[in-house]
Structure formats: C-alpha cells, structure tokens
Design brief:
This protein has one domain (3-40). It is built from 2 helices and no strands. It has helices at residues 3-17, 30-40. Helix 1 (3-17) crosses helix 2 (30-40).
Length: 44
C-alpha cells in the first residue's frame, strides 16, 4: 500500500471509529488492509 492509499484508508478508519461501534486503529495497521479489501473487492 502506498502513502496516498494509507492516508485515504486512515481517514476512513478515523471516521468509522467515531461511530457508536467504532473501528479502532492497531499497531500493525491490519485495519487499513481490511478496509482496502472491503472497499476494493467487487465480490464483497
């Protein structure tokens, strides 16, 4: 994942984390990979 993608998915993660259920960040950054998969996979 390049720096621009990381910036975009981090912004999405921060927005989702403000919702009642939340979507917290992790040290490994695996949440960004999950968001990329969910929002770029045409079969999901």
């Amino acid at each position: 994942m390049n720096a621009e993608e990381i910036k975009i998915y981090r912004k999405l993660q921060e927005h989702l984390d403000r919702l009642p259920i939340g979507f917290p960040s992790t040290k490994s950054g695996v949440e960004l990979k999950l968001l990329k998969y969910l929002f770029n996979n045409p079969d999901s």
